[in-house]
């Protein structure tokens, strides 16, 4: 007769592996027209990549256009349970995800510069899925800050409020860094200093002009 500990060990070995997050591939021509609505009606957080229509094989041939889909359950599910839903949208493959942030970043090849790059704004998030929160790493902030400083210098911006408006209207990814991270004071100080230098430069120009006129 087996002990309870031995029974639990055998049960774990025999039970199918389970996880919370699964991925699949959807080909537009073989999926139902309303496959996105089917996912939305499940009320399960889902991420859908932009249409991957520029991917190439190792031989240089264009791959068939497809979407990568991540389904994030609230609790662990078996592969069979995940497959039941994936079949409804015509998904190909049921892939347990080992590391959600890494797979989510792959939706636009964020860490694969040698592959076709896709726009983060074309990622579809359903039922409360937060792509930015899932894929965030500190190095992304540093890259954004460099882009923001270059933009400020090129466009000679010296007002924090003007720059904040530009971020809100044209660069939502910058606004997140500016408003939600500990960078607001850094940019406020930078722009304040720039404003002071511009004011000093303008004062000197006016002074030199007055001296020449007199």
Structure explained in plain terms:
The protein is α+β, with helices and mostly antiparallel strands and 214 residues long. 51% of the residues lie in helices and 15% in strands. It contains nine helices and five strands; from the N terminus they run αβαββαβαβααααα. The protein has a five-stranded antiparallel β-sheet, with helices on both faces. The protein starts with a helix and ends with a helix. The model is unreliable at 5-15 and 197-214 (pLDDT under 50).
Radius of gyration: 26 Å
Compute the average pLDDT. 84
Q: Tell me the number of helical segments per DSSP (H or I, 4 or more residues long).
A: 9
Secondary structure class reads alpha+beta
Number of strands: 5
Strand order of the largest sheet: 4-1-3-2-5
- What is the terminal-to-terminal distance? 111 Å
Q: How much β-strand is present in the residues? A: 5-15%
Which features characterize this protein?
single chain, 214 residues, alpha+beta, 5-stranded antiparallel sheet, elongated
Write the layout of secondary structure elements.
Blueprint: H1 4-14, E1 18-26, H2 35-42, E2 46-48, E3 67-78, H3 79-88, E4 92-96, H4 100-106, E5 124-126, H5 131-135, H6 138-155, H7 160-170, H8 172-180, H9 184-213
Antiparallel strand pairs: 1-3, 1-4, 2-3, 2-5
Helix pairs in contact: 7-8
């Amino acid at each position: 007769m087996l002990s309870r500990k031995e029974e639990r060990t055998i049960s774990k070995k025999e039970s199918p592996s389970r996880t919370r997050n699964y991925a699949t591939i959807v080909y537009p021509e073989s999926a139902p027209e309303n496959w996105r609505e089917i996912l939305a009606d499940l009320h399960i957080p889902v991420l859908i990549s932009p249409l991957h229509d520029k991917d190439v094989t190792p031989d240089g041939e264009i791959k068939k256009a497809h979407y990568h889909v991540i389904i994030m359950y609230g609790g662990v599910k078996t592969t069979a349970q995940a497959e039941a839903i994936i079949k409804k949208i015509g998904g190909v493959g049921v892939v347990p995800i080992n590391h959600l942030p890494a797979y989510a970043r792959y939706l636009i090849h964020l860490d694969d510069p040698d592959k076709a790059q896709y726009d983060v704004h074309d990622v579809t998030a359903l039922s409360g899925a937060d792509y930015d929160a899932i894929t965030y790493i500190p190095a992304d902030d540093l890259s954004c800050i460099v882009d923001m400083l270059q933009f400020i210098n090129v466009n000679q911006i010296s007002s924090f409020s003007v720059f904040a408006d530009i971020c809100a209207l044209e660069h939502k990814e910058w606004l997140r860094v500016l408003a939600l991270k500990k960078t607001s004071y850094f940019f406020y100080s930078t722009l304040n200093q720039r404003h002071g230098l511009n004011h000093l430069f303008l004062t000197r120009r006016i002074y030199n002009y007055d001296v020449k006129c007199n």
